[in-house]
Design brief:
Elements lengths: L2 H14 L3 H15 L12 H16 L8 H13 L4 H19 L5 H23 L5 H11 L3
Helix pairs in contact: 1-6, 2-3, 2-5, 4-6, 5-6
Length: 153
């Protein structure tokens, strides 16, 4: 990740931080609109979840210039997400909701360069999460599926 990309992401995120609560509302509203199937994975009361999202984003963004220091944390996060029932395809929806949120939150400051810097960052983070997730044994629901397939017909 080059220095230009890192500073575009870091500087634009500084403008989102003061409106973090609104940004989190926009993000989840959009996510549940484009991917209603993921809503049951989340708690009914989302306050803590929203805080966690913005905090984690903040920490990740602050450390982008030394991305190797956040890789193990991001891998752990990816493994944790398997237990929430998150699948690879969901990452595209979350990425879409994130870009939408930045576009709304930053307005004219969301230039094409800023956009591609965020796309690059999200792609990298989600790739690390998905790779770590792929090494986790299939969740119980999958095993049940296999069991019933073995005993089918
Ligand atoms: C780069 C991508 C992502 C990041 C940085 C991220 C970040 C986080 C963080 C920090 C937590 C809190 C973990 C904890 O409690 O220790 C979390 C929880 C969660 N995430 Fe993600 N996430 C990402 C992608 C996704 C995707 C694609 C989905 C699928 C819909 C998803 C669904 C969830 C769910 C269901 C929870 C648990 C909610 C709860 O029970 O409190 N996340 N995520």
């Amino acid at each position: 990740m080059d220095a230009q990309t890192v500073s575009l992401v870091q500087n634009s995120f500084k403008k989102v931080e003061p409106i973090a609560a609104t940004a989190a509302d926009i993000f989840y509203d959009r996510l549940f609109e484009i991917a209603p199937e993921v809503k049951p994975m989340f708690p009914a009361v989302m306050t803590n979840q929203k805080e966690k999202l913005m905090q984690t984003l903040g920490v990740a963004v602050q450390n982008l210039h030394q991305v190797e220091t956040i890789v193990p944390v991001v891998q752990d996060l990816g493994r944790k997400h398997v237990s929430y029932g998150v699948q690879d395809a969901h990452y595209d929806k979350v990425g879409e909701a994130l870009i939408f949120t930045l576009e709304k939150g930053l307005g004219d400051d969301f230039t094409p360069d800023v956009k591609s810097a965020w796309v690059e960052t999200y792609t990298l983070v989600s790739m690390v999460m998905k790779e770590a997730a792929a090494e986790v044994p299939a969740p119980k629901a999958e095993k049940k599926g296999l069991f019933s397939r073995l005993f089918a017909s």
